Amino acid sequence: MSELRKDFVIDRWVIIAAERSDRPHDIAPATQPDPTEPCPFCAGHEAMTPPEVFAYRDRSTAPNMPGWRIRVVPNKYPALASAAGFSHRADSMYEFMDGVGVHEVIIETPRHCPNMAELSDRQFEDVLRAYRQRMVDVQKDPRWQSILIYKNQGSAAGATLEHVHSQLLAMPMVPREVAEELRAAKAHYTAKRKCLYCGIIESERADRRRIVAEDDAFIVFCPFAPRFPFETWLLPKRHSPFFHTVTEDELRQFAGLLRQSLRRLDSAAAAPFNYVIHSGPLKESDHEHFHWRLEILPRISKIAGFELSSGYYINTVAPEAAARNLRDALP
């Protein structure tokens, strides 16, 4: 089992998961995928993954067999693994606990596809519905304080299999970055009596230079201080702290804008990327200050010594120019 160890210097947890070194690396930068090797995420290869925990499939088909549209399985090489309980320990200097959690893979299509932008509107909707349902199901376990949903597409973004997929990770603590964001959002709400992110939406709609697209429910824009070239945020206009409370109408609109955003990025930069859904911590009692969002983080520039030592980022593309290029990327 993996282990969670506390770094007291900057108050963060590190997951020590030696078993993940055994993961496949079939899209390492120096090589191309071997076409003779079967892809474990393709239909017909269900036996190559752990048994599914959730799927959208044809009614006439059985679990762990072909006939599915979306398939969710436990990660074969989990960073955190489910267990009946966990122990939290400390010695004279260090604090650590068993690496318990939930780590799942959401396989987004039965056909082999390396680029999510190639999926249809219906497939995007199914992916987001699967996210929503798994968040609802997983949070029933009271041990988990936060749930992350994220995607790595391309080897430079950390993907070890090219077949499009996302991951869900439930943890018994709130990640340091999320905790810092919460503190800032609470401070802003205390001072202004208004959600920080609702204020950002108002400001961006007034300025308009960084907006990429919007509809009546969501806004897509390049943030004012982006870490990466073409970094893009998608936010609901309705104040809401949790992604899993999105309505069916909102989900359809969000799926359309997410697909459009990834197609714009693919056309403008064709870059590997990560995306992550920032949803509120599960145990937080006061939600007036938090607002869920999805961040798309293209991996065009590399994090190097300056970023690692300072925590600051150098971005060579202004967000106003990035938004203009993304707007122009599709007719």
Short synopsis of the structure:
It is globular, with a radius of gyration of 20 Å. A 10-stranded antiparallel sheet has the order 3-4-7-9-8-13-14-12-11-10, with helices on both faces.
Question: Can you characterise this structure?
Answer:
With 331 residues, this protein is of the alpha+beta class. It folds into two domains: 3-175, HIT-like (HIT family, subunit A, 2-Layer Sandwich), CATH 3.30.428.10; 177-328, HIT family, subunit A, CATH 3.30.428. 25% of the residues lie in helices and 22% in strands. It is built from six helices and 14 strands. Strand 1 (3-7) and strand 2 (12-16) form a beta hairpin. The longest helix has 21 residues, at 248-268. The radius of gyration is 20 Å and the shape is globular. The chain starts with a strand and ends with a helix. Residues 26-31 have low confidence and may be disordered.
List the helices and strands and how they pair.
Elements: E1 3-7, E2 12-16, E3 54-57, E4 68-74, E5 88-90, E6 95-98, E7 102-107, H1 121-138, E8 146-153, E9 165-171, H2 176-192, H3 196-207, E10 211-214, E11 218-221, E12 232-236, H4 248-268, E13 273-278, E14 293-298, H5 305-310, H6 319-328
Antiparallel strand pairs: 1-2, 1-6, 3-4, 4-7, 5-6, 7-9, 8-9, 8-13, 10-11, 11-12, 12-14, 13-14
